[in-house]
Every structure is written in structure tokens, then in C-alpha cells.
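Q: What would this chain look like folded?
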Amino acid sequence: MTDPFARLAELGLELPPVTAPLAAYVPAVQTGNHVYVSGQVPIADGKVLATGKVGAEVTTEEAAALARRCALSALAAVDALVGLARVVRVVKVVGFVAAAPGFTDVPTVINGASELFGEVLGEAGRHARSAVGVAELPRGVPVEVEAIFEVEAS
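A: My prediction, written as C-alpha cells:
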């Protein structure tokens, strides 16, 4: 498998600190050989990176970059819980996009997350996925990404 830390370095990326939960949940939970990562929103240094609806205040390209940031945060949550080196594969990604009326390019937005997983994890980053347009997301953010990872047994 691709060394995720080497790939992050090659891409000029660092795992961010794990964002504190916004409510009564934890960033990630392991059960058996799977890690379920809670929905990650685009936050850096405790601040929301953008608000608004995709297709209105936020462009598709901006939203895809924010989805990429959400995926990076998901990797950080996995690393903090079990170690990123234990990832066998990304199993499933669910992306939510706060879509303006008539905006239908939701899959392109969530490609930002999917592509990051592939860039960092190689073939192990390929996954099943759902991309869903919604009316609102927490704190008014335009995108949220959750993921399920398979990890090596400890």
C-alpha cells in the first residue's frame, strides 16, 4: 500500500488537528476492523472556512476544495484514533452539499474528497460513495463529509 505520510508530504499537506465535536458525539469510533468518522465540516483553527450555498454564494470549485479539506480532517480523525498507517481501504464516503435551488452538480463537489483519498491512499482510497444535496448544514457550511475506513486488526 502507498505510505500515506509520504504521500501527504509529497502533496505538501499536513494532517490538521482533530476538530472538537460541535455537539454530543466523538470524531471517530472503531468497531472491529472499521473506523466510522463523524461528518467533517470545513474548519481550520476552530474557524469555519466558508458558509453559504453551493451554486449561489459558493462556487463548485470552492466547494470541492472545501470537501478536500473535510477529507483531510477525516484522515486526521483516523490517525488520532488508530493510526493512518493501519488503513486498509476507504470503504464508503458520504458527502452532503448545501445546494442552492437548482444546483445539481453535487457529485463534482464531493469529488474533492474522493480525489484526496485516492491521492493519499492510492488504490486503497477508492471507495463506494453517496453525494447528497441538502437544504442546510451545521454552522451554515457548504459541505460535510463522513467516511468509513477498514483498518488492520490490532
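The domain at 4-12+33-151 is CATH 3.30.1330.40 (60s Ribosomal Protein L30; Chain: A;).
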